[in-house]
Amino acid sequence: MQSIYYNDTFETQCVIIVIMRFLLFKTINYQLNNKIMMKRLLCFLVLVIATMTASQSFATSVETGLLSKSGDGDAIYSVVWSGEFTTTYTATPYTGLSATYVDSLGIVRNTSLTFIKGSEVMVSPNCPVNAGVYTVVAKPFLTGDSLDQASATATLTILPATLSIDNSVIIITKFYDGNNIAEVSDKGTVNGLLGYDWVNHQVDAYFDNPNVGSDKDVTVFYSISGPKAANYVLAASQKTLNHGAILEDMRADTTYGGENGVNQGIEVAAYGYCAGNGSIVYHLISGNPNQYKIDFDDPAFPDVNWTNLTTPGNTGTIDINFPVGIATGDYAATLNFRDVNYPSLVSPGIRLSLHINLPETYVVPLFSDVIALIDTCHCLTDVQWYHREAGETLWTLIPGANDYVYQQEGGLTGEYFVSCKMNGMDTYTCPQQDMTNLINDNPVSVKVYPNPTTGNVTVNINNSSNASHLMSIINEAGVVIETVSFDGDTTTIDMSRYNNGRYIVSVDGYAVKIVRN
């Protein structure tokens, strides 16, 4: 409850009363029968009383407190009261501000408060809750012309509350894009709001310039908006972050490699990959990466996590280990680059397609001058043989070599592989190497007897570490006509079921010729 204390000087009142009594006594005694004099006396008394009332004034004092919303017991904002007159204000929760007037007789009278800020005017029990400077006029609820003018004036300042924007996340590194805007990945949270207030908050960040470089300053700006924003100030409206960086973009050079978004900027092996180590060549327009990673679409193919490049730069070679036993076919993947000093900056993904070949066991030398493609799946078509001598890097297509069996005049030398279709899909065989060792010095040997034969033959495999074996019978056209498995080192075949001619018996890829008479 606020009280407006009326300042009434007792001594002054006493003097006036003495004078009035003296004048009244004299008039009664000497002018008792004079009516005109009586009227003059009454007018004089009224004038004195009015003058006494109009001369009343307010003393001065200042008090600081908290202002509460009407209907809400939680104090909000900070309030500073100041004025030229004696007023004591104490905020009253729930009902807002109010005041009383104490007259000269000690009678407490209700008093109204009027709050004025520009064109905004409100009268108690309403009271302001928004930040700003208000003129407060206190007047008693009295009647009479002279008493209607009694009032006290003070200044009410509602100070804005302080907010902070915390835990915002600014990305201070980026690839060059021609502007100085830094990414704000999380605007953070606003702390310090009172009651049921809410505000919108905005966080913006800028590099000191848009050019490529490191050790850049990034300035972060904070702001608030909304109906209640004027009631708050930010503890900090900006801050500066150090060690920002703008890097050259690491984009694929599409003038190299494939098209339609696959293998662009990438050179892969023209004839596919085999188990073991392989490599791809990459070409970037710009940037200076020192790490790469490969994420394969097929879970059967192991991903390559971030790995150091052999030679950092925008052009180089990536070595890949292709696991033994991976199935033949095409494998799609995504290739990314980065600079390890700025691990959050990852290049756009380059789509990569790799082909895994059929193993070299599909190509088997039968004799010193004959090599065969073993079609165990009965699914290989469109055969084409290739050859290169030892020490050569380029493969040579052998014209007219389109059968399952190829005979090389003068004997087999160097390496051979086959391009073909497997169930309609383009594929290759891994190269079969060292023809001389395979033909003459193979520590694992297969014997078939009797040979030639008209009926049953015995097949024996020596020096093999396998407990189980896969055996195929191949005709002169290179077509597998029968495939069986057996355990141990020896099995038998009934050749009487086949027409007369030459055949190949292949056990685990090791072959021997047999003649059916």
Give the SSE map.
Layout: E1 2-7, H1 10-30, H2 35-54, E2 57-58, E3 64-68, E4 75-83, E5 99-102, E6 108-117, E7 120-123, E8 132-140, E9 152-159, E10 161-166, E11 169-171, E12 173-175, E13 181-186, E14 189-191, E15 200-207, E16 213-225, E17 232-234, E18 238-247, E19 266-267, E20 276-283, E21 291-296, E22 304-308, E23 315-322, E24 329-338, E25 350-356, E26 363-367, E27 370-373, E28 380-388, E29 396-397, E30 405-407, E31 415-422, E32 425-428, H3 435-440, E33 445-449, E34 456-462, E35 468-474, E36 480-487, E37 490-494, E38 501-507, E39 510-516
Parallel strand pairs: 1-5, 10-17, 12-18
Antiparallel strand pairs: 1-2, 3-4, 4-9, 5-6, 6-7, 6-8, 8-9, 10-14, 11-13, 13-15, 15-16, 16-18, 19-20, 20-23, 21-22, 21-24, 24-25, 26-27, 27-30, 28-29, 28-31, 31-32, 33-34, 34-37, 35-36, 35-38, 38-39
What does this structure look like?
The chain is mainly beta and 517 residues long. Helices cover 9% and strands 46% of the residues. It is built from three helices and 39 strands. Strands 1, 2, 3, 4, 5, 6, 7, 8 and 9 form a nine-stranded mixed β-sheet that branches. 24% of the residues are buried.
